[in-house]
Amino acid sequence: MNTSGNLKTIPSDRALDDAHHLLHSALNAYRREQRNVRDSQASPQTCLEAVRDCLDAAACRGISLSVVVLGHWRTATTDMLGEGAERFLLGDVLTGGHGLTVLQREAHLLDTVDRDRLSGLSAKGATVKVVPGQATGVIVVGSELALVNSTRPGQSGAVRLLRDPDAVQALHQLTAVLHDVAADFDHWVASAALLDKDLMVEVLRMLCLGAKDETSARQMRVSVRSFRRHVAAIIKTLNVRSRFEAGLRIGQLAMASGLRPPGHLLDMPAEPGTD
Asked: In 10 A of CB 128, how many CB atoms?
């Protein structure tokens, strides 16, 4: 009886080695291809679609993602996501139930329009903070992907689309550290308004010097009652509980935004003979 149809061919050791080698080569090629895909230069439209896909995938899983924008708000979002970036972030991100955090750099360079936009984002549920340093555009979407604006002065736009877990995690940790040391945007706006007024800067200087109200009022040529009213206005505007906290808040906000804090006036001595 012919039983050849029931017999299984047993592969030789050489055939197994060849198959293993081919599989290993294929896996290496696939990894190289994936590595290139994970770190590639992309257009704003491609970046926008990649972020949208991440958000949609998260929504299908019933989870929300945190989107963090680091840099100058308008420049970073437009360069990396295109002209419809703000509408996308307000709609797909905030309205879609995801978190949005803006870490604004060089806040002292913001014009009135950008300040109003950021205030509007804050009012709609976004976390807006001010961080020190120059504006390098970065957008991190959860632990899924990151966008880095690698444009150099004098060159056309170049955005890196990163999917490598280690790279995304590193950028996520960077934004987390900056978030912890950043100043609240609404508080910064309040402090910027104070620092634009010479009278309030002088009041803050007197607070930093630790002079008595009577001495401060005399040097400013105002009544003690007026001086204390200015101090109360500063404390209320900065949303702090004491004069000491007001000085700390102003210093933090000024350094975070690149402004020079009123503390630089501390080298000005009080009038001779004052207590």
From this structure: 25
177 plus 199 within the same structural domain = no
With a threshold of 0.85, does the pTM exceed it? no
Calculate the CA dihedral of residues 117, 120, 121, 123 and round it to 10 degrees. 160
Does residue 208 sit within a domain? Answer: yes
Q: What angle do CA 162, 167, 169 make, to 5 degrees?
A: 115
Residues 162 and 207 in one domain: no
CATH number at residue 63: 3.30.870.10
**110-128: pLDDT as tens digits:** 888 888 889 889 999 999 9
The parent domain of residue 60 ranges over 38-181
Cα pseudo-dihedral 73, 79, 81, 82, rounded to 10: 110
Cα end-to-end distance, the chain, whole Å = 120
Helical H runs in 158-263?
Answer: 165-181, 185-195, 198-209, 213-220, 224-238, 243-257
